[in-house]
Structures are given as structure tokens and as C-alpha cells.
User: Fold these one by one.
Assistant:
Number 1:
Amino acid sequence: MLCLGQVYGNASSIHYFGQGAKRQLEAARRQIASLIHASPGEVIFTSGGTESDNMAVLGVARASANASASRHVISSSIEHPAVLGPCMQLQREGADITLLRCGASGIVDPDDVRKALRPDTVLVSVMHANNELGTIQPIAEISRITREAGVPLHVDGVQALGKIAVDVDALGVDLYSMSGHKLYAPKGVGALYIRKGTRMAPIAFGGHHERDRRAGTENVPSAAAFGAAAELAAGRLAEESERLRALRDRLERRVLESIPDTGINGDRGNRVPNTSNIYFDGIDGEALVIALDLRGFAVSTGAACSSGALTPSHVLTAIGLSADRARASMRFSLGHGNTAEQVDALVDALGASMMHLRRISVHA
Amino acid sequence: MPEQPIAVAMSGGVDSSTVAALLVRQGRAVVGMTMQLWNQRRLPELSTEHSTGRCCSLDDVYDARHVAEQIGIPYYVVNFERQFEEQVVKPFVEEYLAGRTPIPCTLCNNYIKFDRFLEMADSVGAGHMATGHYARIRYHEAAGRYRLLRAVDAAKDQTYFLFGLTQGQLARTLFPLGDLNKTEVRELARGMDLAVASKGDSQEICFVPNGDYAAFMSAYLRETGVTARQTSGEIVTTDGRTLGRHQGVHHFTVGQRKGLGIATGEPLYVIATDAERQRVVVGGNDDLLRSRFFAGSVNWISIAGVSHPVRAQVKIRNKHRAAGATLHATGDAARVEVVFDEAQRAVTPGQGAVFYDGDLVLGGGWIE
């Protein structure tokens, strides 16, 4: 709030007020860098995860030395649309895209990355944790392969940041996308980690902000909030992730015990602690979402961004679910404010809604 | 949920918005839902900046959500695109290709609005649904049936499109606007300060931009990769003379005068289309007159059926003024022969025939 009320300078201005804004911005940059064990000069602010992903994918591919020759990009079929979208754009610009498949586990096999590499591969982009399943991808193993091949590795970390420890050096990533609101900062701010020396073409022009990486006046109040959120997340990461894991496991145990024809989508072991994707066979997921919302529980069928879409989740389809089971699947995300009592109430509400829904579908 | 809420089908227009607001004002628990039926990003070649009658546009969802916020009700967009395409769009296209003139609004009412939507209402714990249709429902003790009646506002009456409603559907449906006229509805909307109070009425078939069926059909067939069989053929007169050629029977509908591309002395009308032989039959105005036809797949509403000849007024398209007729039973309870007192113009296969007794909707079926 200090930022909104009193720090009204432009962080690029030389004068006193500008310097005040600049101080806030740089403090936030240090806080975020510290959360991912990067140096502050490698972190730039963006408007959110989508922009970070676009900058990374488009920027690195377009900056590749053999821009005039063929360009090849490797990504996975379970990426967020913020990565798949720019990949499709590169395809329209003439690039070849390989989307790695992954089995029922929802985890990409590093060996598939190795096999997909070509001499003209200019970028590999694989997410850290899947947004619908929560499954954690073997980034460190993938980076050993990409490093050996001399290909930059971008990782969409939006869903992992604040949920599991992130160390960009240990992971070996060259670019890492982050979103503020996933850490409870306001919506509309994100960041991109860019390892020093990474070649990247800008996607917006007209300013020298953020070390020439991103033109445009920085959103100082939101960046400061993101910084503060990052510091809070760093402080409580270990404790909070254990707490969320226990809650999530409680939710799954109780659902599987009390509601028939249910199961967990994706690998159960290798997941961020707060996410659970459960199928309820024979149910219209959309109806269940509404029924639960009316009972005070906010869940979603797929990614929040694509709710209401006609096709079932591309992630659930990619891991081999039938269209019917994909439509009958529900994503549960637990957060800082959730308690065991709430989880129990949710399971009760789920049970009641399910009884009602299954009774209706028998008549229908 | 202490009280079972009413699910209101909100289109973002003034009618359904007023329905939701009226029910809230009466102290009822209301859930607003907008049906997403057609993806406007499909068939981009059809969209123009000034497209009219676009359903499910983002603007409409925005308007409905705004109203829901104003009146303080939970609001959801429910996606029925798959069902809409299967049960409304595909049959519409097939009927047209088969040389008939379908009415998708009735199919949509039968299979989507009063079927799928009602099921969704049920799923989320709502016992009843309400819409902004202009029609009235009354329970008739003696007959033990729900009756459907024309709206008080004759100009807005929508019963022609509602002839497929079953007793089960009628029992769970509310039409709060049936006793009001449009002017009153707008005044109510204005009085309640609804954001959509001055919004224009929707027209045309919602998924067909600018009412251009032929363009929609071509684009849809192209997108779905269906190659229509040979669609060109001859234009012939009732007495067998060939006058010219046409580019597909689906471009023509019975009673049509314009667009034949033939210059003759007296005005020519389409009398019939024959998809089998790809022929369009044309003739003079008198050739369009018919005094009897069969209606199939009849749904009886206010009465259980006809066993002996029953007097009625029969409407053969939405803008048709119901004409005096006698309904004759056939061996099949869901099929009747309609005999008009005076021959009527352009009895069109594929359109609905709705039987009235004054304000009462007896039932309706499809013109064979």
C-alpha cells in the first residue's frame, strides 16, 4: 500500500521520486531472486505467467542464430496454453514443433527429450508442475540433456513456485516463468528468470526497461507486492507444503473411501502438495462444479482459463483419459487459508452432490 | 440451500433478465445460467462486424453476468455446445439438404432448453426453471394436465416454438412474462434499473449470422468436411417445363419468390423442393395453396389427443395467422390430418403445425 500511496515516481526517472520507485522495484527483484536462488539481475518483471511464457518461447526461438534456416522447438502435450499458444505461433512462422507425449503418469520422460533433439532445435520448454494434475516434471534430468546439446531450456514454473523448493541452478534451467497471484500477490504481475547470457529477442519494443528485456514502465506496486509475497512464501515453504500435503491426502483418502467410482488422475507420488485431480465416473463435471459452488466450494473442471470450453481438458486427454472421464474430472487446489474442517466439509458436500447427481442421471 | 432455487435461463437480453429480477423481487432464490450453445469463433468466414442475431456472443454473457451481479444472484455459463450441434445444428443442416425447411428453435426448445437445461437445473439442486418466453402455463385440475396458453402480448407470443413441451417439462417450468406485454417488461426492467433495459430484441436464428442460411450451410459443410451430394439441378414448372437451373435445393424454401433467377411474365413461387431429384418446382401463387396435410410426431399438450374430429385453429409457421381447421385422428395417436376450412398458402414440409383452441395450445406436430 505504501507503493500505491507514496511511491508514485517512475522507476526509470532520475529524480528523487523515481529513485524511490526504483528502490522498491529492486528490493522486490531481490526477494524473488532469493526465492529461486538466482541473482537479481537475472529476474525481470512481467504482467504475469502468460507474458513470461510468451517472452521466453517467442524470444528465445526468434533470437536463435539460424533464424533464417529451419527452427525446431520441443515442448510437451501437457503444457499450459500460455506455452502451447506461442509454440503454435512459431509454427505459423515456419518453425517445427515437437510436443512430447506423456503416459498416464502425467510426467514427461527425459529420454523422450533426448530422442526429440535435432541439430536445429533452438528451445526446449517443459513445465515444472502441471497445472491440472500437479505432477512434477524431471527438470534436472531434462536440463542435463539440453545442456549437453547446448539448447536453452525454458520451464513454466507458475504452478510450482511457492509449492516446492525452486533452485534454478540445481534445476539447470535457462528461463523460468513465474506468476505473482499464485503466491497471493495481486493478479497481473509475474516474472521471468533469464540466465545470464541467454539470447532472447524482445517481443515488445520502445523502451529500455528491465535490462532491455521488456519495454514498458514497470508496475511498481504489484512488483513490490510480488516481492513481499515471495519472501513470505520462502519463509513458510517447508512447513506449509507439509500442511497442504496432509490436507490434500486427507481429501483424497476420504473421497476414495466414501464415493464409489472415483480415482486420482496422474502420478500420485510426484506432485506439488496442494493439487489433486479426481475423476467421478458418470458425472457431468460442469454440474458438479456449479453444485459445489452453490454450497460454497470453488473447484474447477480443468484449468480456470479454459472452463466452459467445449473440448475436454487437453491435459487429461493427453494422459489417456476418455472424453467422458475427462469431463467427469475435477481439479482441487488447496491453499494457505484451507483447514482440515473445510476439507471434511468439502468431502461431505461432494458426497451429497454426487448422490444427487447420480440419482438424476439414473432417471435421465 | 434452505429453499430450492429456480434456475433462470439468462440470455443477456431484456426478457430473461427481467424474469430473473422479478423472481428475486418476489423473494425467490434464483440461480442464473447462460447456455453457451455455439462457438462464434467457428466459421470465421461468416462473421462480420455487423452480424446480427449472434447467439452466445461474449457481449451477451457479459450482459447476463452484469445483471446477475446487479440483482445479487449466483451466475454460471453452462456449455451445451456439443448437444446443440448434435441435436439442433446437424438436424437443421440435414433437413435443409433434404429439401425441407426446419425450425431449429423448436428443436432447441425440445432438446436443449427444456431438456438439457432442466437436467442441469436438477443437477445443481434447482427444482424449477424459468425463461423469458412469452407464453402461459396453467394447471387444469379437471383434466389433470398442464395447459399451455398463448401469451397476453399477441405480438410476442412464442407458443408456436413451444409445442414440443411435455407434461413433465411444463410442470417444472415458469414463464413469468406470459401475462405481460413487451412494453410492460421494458418498463419493469427500467424500473429495476437493469443494465439491459434498452437492449434491442434478438432476431433470426441465433447461430446463423444475418439470417443467411445458405452461407451458413456452405461454411458448416466445408468445416466439417462433408461434401454435399451434387446440389445443382433443374427448376421446373408444375406442368413439367424446365425453366432454368439452380445451385442446390437448400437455397430454396416453399413460398419463396425472390432469387429464382428467372424472368417471366407472371410472378413465380417455389411450390416444392425435391432433394432426391434435385428439382425445384415453381408455379403461380394459386399453386401454393393447400387445404390439407398430415402432421407427424404430434405432441399433445392441453388435451390428451383426438379420437374424433376436433375443431381448431392451426398455425403453419410463426408469422402465419392461425386458420380454422378440423383435426382428424389417424390410426397413430401422434399423427393427425389437418383439413383447413380455406386453403392456405405455402404449407411447408419440415415446419411445425401448432393447433390452438382460442388461447389454448392443444398440441403440435411436424408438417409431412
Number 2:
Amino acid sequence: MTKNQRKSIAALAVVSVIMSITVNSNAMHIMEGYLPPKYSIAWGILCIPFLVAGFLSIKMKLKDSRRNITLLAMAGAFIFVISSLKIPSVTGSCSHMTGTGLGAILFGPTAVGILGIIVLLFQAILLAHGGLTTLGANTFSMAIAGPFLTFGIYKLCMKLKVNKWVSVFLAAFIGDIFTYCVTSFQLAMAYPSPEGGVGASVVKFLSVFAPTQLPLAILEGILTLLIMIALETYAKPELKMLGYMKEAK
Amino acid sequence: MERDRKKVHRHGHHGRHRHVSIDSYAYISGLKEWNTPYKVSFALLAILAVITADSPAVSIMTMVFMGGLSIGAGRIKSGDYFRLMLVPAAFIITGGIAVLIQVGTGAESLLRIPFFNTNLYITKESLGQSLGLFGKAFGAVSALYMLALSTPMGEIISTLGKVKVPSVILELMHLIYRYIFILLETNAGQKEAAQSRLGYCDMKTSFRTFGGELANLLILSMKKSGEYYDALESRGYEGNCLFWEEKKKLMKKQVFWGAAYVGAAVILLILF
């Protein structure tokens, strides 16, 4: 073995040990303190139009019937709960779903924006996932970008007459991947590389988080699919009730 | 109370009560008596100080100060506190690695390793930046914990009301917060039932069970939501939830701690 080869192997060993530490993975919440103030504020502002739209849609739903308040609250609590439950696994690692993709398919992306920011605030305070100053960035990636894409792909697949289950899987899977890409981009903007700038930095963040986030996205897709199959089998009336929620924008 | 608290922690790692452990502290903390808007502003001020100052001295001081406040005045057990500090560690370390390691030609690096066609390297700046980031993240998290470990959610929501967050949102938050615990408890029952029927015997079955549990949970929650509305209405709900709030006075001691923090931060910024 040459010296360089030995060095490479040592480096890979270090990287893989570190990766195995981080197997206890959540969806990618940017932690408190991670973003400089400038970026915290900018991402927060970017969320505002979506949140206003979500707020208005919720107001409309409540105008239709006050009864929707408990339905919406249950939807929010449901998103929180699925994101806090441990996914079964053989290795004993501890991963969680994002849940916002499923939320978008069930409740529609505009309502998920508002429910999402509430859930993210609760996650920051009750679970220490994410933070207060990073709430804007996390809301944008997890409660807006991901769910909107998930919902878009789901609708597109329906239009193109793709098999329903394939479209559910694809929507949840791609939505999750997109969230992970947006988060990496957010981190890279805040911490660009001296050599190669933001672009090189995006690649770094993507590859560092890939070992945990890629399997998680596949799991998210499979679980969303399993949940939807079960719902379709046992809960047609409830799904109709939710379908009504989506249409009543 | 003491026994409940232990129970929560025994289950700490097994997922079932994991989510409540921070919340359960909020009700027994020694800092519970603090004036809530003041406490929220104090925590936010400290977080902002850490991320705007971008100085390791301020980060470390915040970590020590807030840790001291939570453990000393808040009477959180130190072992539990450090275990909680490890929750965000995975993200902080992974993200820190991406900032630490650079890719490219790598002139003037402390350490350089060839990697396929390029080099992975660490420079003095990247080492400094990633260590600074570690400090900032843990410092800010310690300030967040000072708040989270001592303030029940209801009080945080009512503080949001004071900054004019629309009442519909506040109401949703109050209800969501309550429903979370109902759903978690329901799920704990589901899990036990499934486990006793070998629903988690192997990987494939586990996934099927897990998916089924969640689907069922959604059905249950949708069904219950109607009943809960009836329950609200029967107690005179007319589109406005009113909650009783304890009056918590701003005491001199609380102001002293805030002033001490600001003083320490200013001195450190002048010195370093």
C-alpha cells in the first residue's frame, strides 16, 4: 500500500464511523443557531406569501363550518405524531418520517403550510428538532417546498393516469428528496466553500446527509404508500371528508 | 410528581414517552415562576446574541450561563440535561463536517487527503468556522432549552397572542397541542395490541403494522374530531377558546439574571 492509499482508506474509515453515529436520523431540521441572522430572516420572509395563503384557506374553511377547527387541529396533531414516531428498523437506529408529504396528499398543500409551521414550532420546543431562528428556513423546506412538490407530482400522476400507488410512492419519495435538497441548499448558501462557492458547498452538504436522508426518503415513500392503501381499504368515508377539505379552498 | 417524572425518563429512550420529556420538565422547573414574556424575550435575545456576535467566547459563555440557569435555578438533573444536549448533536456534527472539509486543489491546507480525482482538505479557516459553528449551535440550543425546559406550551402560545398572532392560529395551536397527547396515547395502545399479536416479528410485518397503525390513527382522529367539537360546543364554545392564565410577576431576581447575561456578553465582545 502506498502512503496515499493508506491515507484514503483512513479517511474513508473516519467518514464511515461518523456516518454511523448519525444514523439516528430525523428529517433534516436545521438546528437552532445554525443560520446567520440574514438568512434566518430571508427564509422567513419567503414563507410569508404561502403562510398568508394558508391562513386565508383555513379562514374560509372555518367560515364554511366552525366544525372544521377540530378537524384541522387533528390533522396538525396527526402530522406531528407521525413525525415523532420511530420507524421500525432492524438495526436499532432511530428514524422518523417527515409526515408533511402525507399531509399534503390528505389535507392539501396550502393548509399544510400553516399546520406545518405550528408542528415545526412544537418540534423545536418539545423535541429539540429544529429551532426558533431557523423556523423560517425549516418551514420553507419542510412545510412548503416539499408538500407543494408532493402534491403537484401526485396530481400530475393522477392526470397522466399513472397507477395510483406508484404515484403516491413517487410523490412522497420525491417530495422528501426535494426537502433534503432545499435544506442542503439553505445550508450551502449560509456556508459557501472558499473554492467553488455555493455550488461546491451544496454538493458537500448533499453528500454528507445522503447516507441518512436517501434511505429515509425511500422509507417515507413506502410508509406513505402503506398508509394510503390502508386508508383506501378501511376509510373511504373519512377520505371523502378530507377531499372536501381540499376542494373548499 | 417525582414518581411520574421518573417514569417518563425510564421510557426515555424507547420512543413511547420520549416526546414528552422536555414538556414534562416545563411543569416542574424552578424557572416556571418566571414572567413568561420576559423569559421568551431573554431566550430569544441570547439566541440572537449568539448568532449575530459569531464569537466563540459569547457562544461558550451562553452555553455555561444557560446550562447553569437550567440546572442550577431550574433544578433539571444534570445527567438529563446533557442527554438532552445530545439530541441535536447528530445534525450539528454532520453539518459541521460539511463545513470543515473542503474539496478542491487545497493549497495551504492543514491536512490534505487525495480523494478520487480531487482532494479533501481542511484549512485553518474551515477548522475555525466549523468549531465556531459547533459553539454557536450548542450555545443557541442551550438558550432554547432554558425556555423549553421551563415554559409550558400554553404559556408560549399566550405569549404569541401578545405579539398579535391571529387568534385562529392560537386556537389551532392549543387544540393541536392537546390532540398530540391524545393521539400518542392512542398509538401507544395500538402498538401494544399489535406487539402482543406478533405484529412486529420481522421487518416486513413491522412495516405493514406500522402503516396500518398510522392509517387507523388517522381514521380514529377524524372520527374523534367531530366528538371533540361537540364537547367544545357543549361547554359554551363560540369560536373562541379562553384559557386561564397564572399571573407571573417580573421579579428583581429575573431582571438581574438578564442583566448579568447582557453584561457578560458585552464584556466578552469588548475583550475578544
